[in-house]
Amino acid sequence: MFETSRIKKILANFGAAQNARNQELIDQLEKFGVLPVPLVADELRYNRMKYSDAEKIFHRLFDIKDINVFIKGLGESKENIRELYKETIIRFGRSGAALALIEHLGDSDNMIRKMAADIIIEISDASVAPRIIPFIRHESKDVKKTAMDILSAIKAEKASDAIIPLLDDSDSWIRRKAIEALCRLKNRDVLPRLLALALEEGDPKVARPALELASEIGGPEHTSAALQMIKSSDLVIRQKATEAVILMADSTIVPEVMLFLKDDDVNVRRAATDILNGLKDTKTASALVKAMKDADWWVREIATDALSELGGGKVSEMIKELLFDKDESVRRCAVEFYCRVKDPSALEALVKLLEDEDWWVREKAITALGFIGDPVAIEPISKLLGDKEVKWAIPKALASIGHKSALKALSKLAKDDKTQVRMETLKAVGGLGGDEAVALVKTMALDSEPRIQEEALLILRSLTGRIWLLDEVMEEIKAEDDKTGGDEPEEAKAGDRLTEAILVVDLCKSTDVASHYGDSALYELMKELDKIVTPLAREAGIRFMKSTGDGFLMTFDSTLKATWMAVETLEKLASRNANIEEKRRMNVRFAINVGETRVNTSGDRVGNAVNMAFRLEGAKKEDITASHEGAKPDEMLEQNRILITEAVKCELEDKPKPEWCFLGFFELKGMTGLHRIYQLIAEKP
Predict the structure, then answer these.
(1) In 265-287, which positions are buried (b, 16+ CB within 10 angstroms) versus exposed (e)?
(2) What pLDDT, in 10s, does the model give residues 515-557?
(3) N- or C-end of the chain: fewer Cβ atoms within 10 A?
């Protein structure tokens, strides 16, 4: 009691003392042997001493003959104190401490048992193994586990022999822990037993470590056992078994794997195909070709991937036979192979596939022919320009072939109604290069889609080495048209009589704009309208165009082109108007008629058909004559509308997707009689 009081008094001085004084205090404590150790732990527990000071005291007072004092401290409730005892024993105890700690592996205090095991593992002295092995037979399963953990960690020489009997233990938990311990020992001789037990147990917690060990140290002789586990109903086991077989096996396993391709369970067939893919051996080719005909899409996909990586003439010959299989899924996989493996000998077969009834097969055949790069394929590919399901793939394929003769087909796609097709075409043309390609890109710069305009200007810069503005392109094309006569098949001459679709577009409330905001504001609006309608008109194939001051008069060789151009313009204006203030919005009215026009001496279009188009553009609701067939007057739009005559409606009736509503009978100024007038619904015809 007297010594305890003296020790506590010394410890009380640590907080206020300087380092030099602390050394003197530790010297004083050393005279008491290990008696101060638990008292130092109390000081640390109640935060009356720094950890560093407690550590110095423990290190000075440790003596191997008093090891049990420190072992007892391993059961402390506070973690930092337990760690201090543990660190001191490891640092100063080493082998002598390990022997003492072994006696506590069966301790009733779980914490002491755990800490003792941790220290023995940390010291890692294999010579103590004979003293630990008896604990394998301890009645407590926790003690058994602790002994297995230590033996497997220190890689003791007879550890495997000691642990193997536990594989037959009646307790599944012990069996599992024995497997884990044996796996950590990485004893190759034990692997067959572990795999057999994993297969028998069917427990992922058993199979996983066994299969991971097989992946690490196994060889071809272990693959059969692992292969059987791909039939497991557990996803983890199947995955681990598949990975293990791939890492261990060689081509000798292929016949056995092929048997699994016939299994009724799709998951088993998938795993088997994964294995064949992972082997990367040409001897697997025939099995993989059979897998391409599997009913499961995933099996077919993996088989196709694997064969694509193998490649080679023999593989290609086997795949060719599948190109005309009656099952479209098989044909899809076969043609996909040629999108990845370049084989000119498949060209003839791929050309035949361009006529396949399945759109996916046709599309991939186009891609594969582009990959082969033979100009012979250009003509058969060009026959699919009107195929809505696959035409978007044509530009890239033609660009891959890279022959100038592809420009003819690309020029047709440049006017396609699908933005995606035109964009792909533009990129393809840019990739070909040359004067003809530059000319086509300039034309495409006038596309109605801003994204295509921007891309075209970038491509022009790449092809010509200079920066282009849209206005420059328009002026250059216009100048060229003036020289060549534009796109008209024959230049119209004065006195000619032509049958044309006549389109009139007028800017709404142009007089109000000029009076409120000035002529310059109207000029800017008209300039902007010109930039919108001119590219669209050219894209539609305009024959004649002139300004009417606050609008335009245009003619086309078909009503379909005229209505398409009008609908496209309204869509562009709707997009423009959506994000600007009311006073800056641009609204228009369209009128379309069809009939005979005369070309006067100035090249202008005149005649009754032209006059009717102008009268129709200005029609108002109050001009409607009631009709039981007609729509209500309020269904007639005041602006952003497209009015068409009876003659136009008749021509559109046999065209795809024309939609209109009958407004009623109109008496048009200067036109005798009543005229049936229709309003076109703004959807591309």
Answers:
(1) eebbbbbbbbbbbbbebeebbeb
(2) 776 666 777 778 888 888 988 998 888 999 988 878 899 999 9
(3) N
pLDDT tens digits along 463-485: 888 888 888 888 777 666 555 54
Query: What are the E-state strand segments in 81-173?
Result: none
| Separation between Cα atoms, residue 129 and residue 146, nearest integer Å | 13
CATH second-level architecture of 381-484? Alpha Horseshoe (1.25)
How distant is the alpha carbon of residue 669 from its chain centre?
Answer: 61
Amino acid at 197: L
Q: What is the pLDDT of residues 600-636, one digit of tens each?
A: 877 889 988 999 999 999 888 887 776 666 666 667 8
Inter-axis angle of helices 450-464 and 470-484, nearest 10: 80
Q: CB-hemisphere CA count at 13 Å for 433?
A: 6
Predicted pLDDT of residue 277: 86
Which CATH number is associated with domain 494-680?
3.30.70.1230
Here the contacts of 107-116 (C-beta below 8 Å, separation 24 or greater) are 109/75, 110/142, 111/74, 111/75, 111/76, 111/82, 112/71, 112/72, 112/74, 112/75, 113/142, 113/143, 113/146, 114/146, 115/74, 115/75, 115/82, 115/85, 115/86, 116/71, 116/74
Closest C-alpha to 510, from 497, 496, 525: 525
Sign of torsion, CA 428 431 437 442? positive
State how far the Cα of 69 lies from the Cα of 74, in Å rounded to an integer: 9
Element (H, E) at 644: strand 641-645
pLDDT band at 1 (very low <50, low <70, confident <90, very high): low
Cα separation, 206 vs 356, whole angstroms: 51
Contacts of residue 427, Cβ cutoff 8 Å, sequence gap at least 6: 395, 396, 399, 455, 459
Confirm whether pTM is higher than 0.70: no
Report the distance separating Cα 159 and Cα 196, nearest Å.
20
Q: Residue 18's pLDDT is what?
A: 60
Name the token pair of 523: 């000029």
Q: Which residues contact 175 (CB under 8 A, 6 or more apart)?
A: 166, 167, 168, 169, 197, 201, 206
List strand residue ranges (DSSP E) for 489-623, in order: 497-507, 542-547, 551-556, 588-599, 605-606
How far apart (Å, rounded) are the C-alpha atoms in residues 343 and 314?
A: 11
- What dihedral do alpha carbons 557, 562, 563, 565 form, nearest 10°? 130
186-230 pLDDT tens trace = 889 999 999 998 888 888 888 999 999 999 999 999 999 999 999
Pairing outcome for strands 641-645 and 588-599: parallel
**Which residues of the chain form CATH 3.30.70.1230?**
494-680
Q: Which of 72, 123, 75 has its CA nearest to residue 99?
A: 123
How many CB atoms neighbour CB 477 within 10 A?
Answer: 19
d(C-alpha 217, C-alpha 230), whole Å:
19
Angle at which helix 394-401 crosses helix 359-372, to 10 degrees, equals 20
Tokens representing residue 279 in the block: 């082997």
DSSP-assigned beta bridge partners for residue 556: 501, 542
Residues of CATH 1.25.10 domain(s) within the chain?
A: 381-484
Q: Residue 437: CA atoms inside 13 Å, Cβ hemisphere, count? A: 23
CB of 195 closer than 8 Å to CB of 226: yes
Using CA atoms, how far apart are residues 115 and 110, in angstroms rounded to an integer?
9
CA nearest neighbour of 569 among 605, 538, 604: 538
* Cα 526 to Cα 289: distance, rounded to the nearest angstrom: 65
pLDDT number for residue 247: 93
Distance CA 683, CA 563 (A): 9
